[in-house]
Design goal:
Molybdenum Cofactor Biosythetic Enzyme, Chain A; Molybdopterin biosynthesis moea protein, domain 2; 6-stranded mixed β-sheet
Length: 411
């Protein structure tokens, strides 16, 4: 049995590059950018009017002039006009290019317009006001979005404004999620007294959806021959296999044996943690194993224990960091302050379910009392897990700070 830290290290030593693809920019939200996005021109690309009003030369106002003849109008979206008489003014609209020979804009609320004359009604004016100067946001060729950024709606607007109708993103792994066990039935079936509905695979599907990774699901019975046949096919067709169940010490927990017989090299089995101790991890040798596009490729197997909380926490602790490193994203660690004393006797890392709250800019974690790793409903009450480290100490005190894994937004 290895520690959580050792398991994380092994997994992060076995990340994979799935390549790059180019997709329409509107389909890229949640994907990982694989190119620097640069400004194709200055931002803004011209001296931009920031208020509806009039534009004029500040020096005349400085000399005491308050009445300005309106020489023309500069609408947004039209070519730049030139004011011929420096003592005149131009009506200008928000978003328009500033006319030549003007250097200051006054909003309509601060002028009185009578026929072709604009009279300034205030005295507090600053030279250059209400003008968004060319290049003050970014200069041409500045990097606007760095490679390895996870694209959000805010990046979409930038992609559009620089004309990136298609964008390079990290390819996603092709994932199969497999449940095992004769006690499981489909969601739309009515289970018998000794059966339960499949749930873990759909939890995993949703956890991967959060990463924008599509996946497929399958359910296999606890028969060794069936497992061998189906898993061999999955290893050939998918980049990553996620299993839930059949990895402990039960008489029908054939999965570790079957995987090794199929050429999946065990990286570890059993991690000193609660929940999720029986976690099995393996990787194929690339030799002779075909990947997508007919190329040889290693395939990774995450075989999580079947209890729902175990499956859930192991996906967050191990699969998420593996995926992020594979696509070049640096994860930001989160921590929270424990709000209650916690006593935990086994010498294991303890992923404790917690409710998360913020107060004065600090994050607090309040323990949730569940009924063990099989208590699926307890996940609804919590926002995440706090990681209490493997230590000889048995008491974790209120006010101490520990790492957290959140799976829900919190207040």
């Amino acid at each position: 049995m290895i520690t959580v830290e050792e398991a994380k290290h092994i997994i992060l030593q076995n990340t994979q590059d799935f390549g790059v693809e180019e997709i329409p920019f509107l389909e890229s939200v949640g994907r990982v950018l694989k190119e620097d996005i640069v400004a194709d021109r200055d931002f803004p690309p011209f001296n931009r009017v920031a208020m509806d009003g009039i534009a004029f030369n500040y020096r005349f106002f400085q000399y005491g002039v308050r009445d300005f003849k309106i020489e023309g109008i500069q609408p947004a979206g039209s070519a730049q006009e030139t004011m011929e008489n420096a003592a005149h003014c131009y009506e200008v609209m928000t978003g328009a290019v500033l006319p030549n020979n003007c250097d200051t804009v006054i909003r309509y609320e601060d002028v009185s317009i009578n026929t072709l004359m604009a009279t300034v009604t205030i005295d507090d004016i600053k030279e250059g006001q209400n003008i968004h100067q060319q290049g003050t946001d970014r200069k041409q060729n500045d990097i606007l979005i760095k490679q390895n950024t996870i694209i959000s709606p805010s990046e979409i607007g930038v992609l559009a404004t620089v004309g990136k109708s298609r964008v390079k993103v990290a390819k996603l792994p092709k994932v199969m999620i497999v449940s095992t066990g004769d006690e499981l039935v489909n969601v739309d079936e009515i289970p018998k007294a000794h059966q339960i509905r499949r749930s873990n695979v759909f939890t995993l599907v949703s956890l991967l959806n959060e990463l924008k990774i599509p996946s497929e699901t399958a359910h296999l019975s606890d028969e060794k021959e069936v497992l061998q046949q189906k898993i061999a096919s999955f290893l050939n067709d998918y980049d990553v296999l996620l299993f839930s169940g059949a990895v402990s010490k039960g008489k029908f927990d054939f999965l570790p044996e079957v995987l090794e017989e199929l050429g999946v090299k065990k990286l570890f089995h059993r991690v000193s943690q609660r929940p999720g101790k029986p976690f099995w991890m393996g990787i194929t040798d690339a030799l002779g194993m075909s990947g997508r596009n007919g190329k040889e490729a290693q395939k990774l197997v995450f075989a999580f224990p079947g209890n729902p909380v175990s499956t859930f926490v192991n996906c967050l602790v191990y699969f998420y960091p593996w995926y992020y490193k594979s696509v070049g994203v640096e994860q930001q660690d989160q921590s929270a302050i424990l709000t209650e004393d916690v006593s935990f006797k086994p010498d294991l890392t303890y992923f404790l379910q917690v409710k998360l709250t913020t107060e004065n800019g600090q994050l607090f974690a309040t323990p949730i009392q569940g009924n063990g790793s099989g208590d699926l409903a307890s996940l609804v009450e919590a926002d995440g897990f706090i990681e209490l480290p493997k230590t000889e100490e048995r008491e974790f005190k209120k006010g101490e700070v520990f790492s957290i894994l959140s799976y829900r937004s919190f207040k």
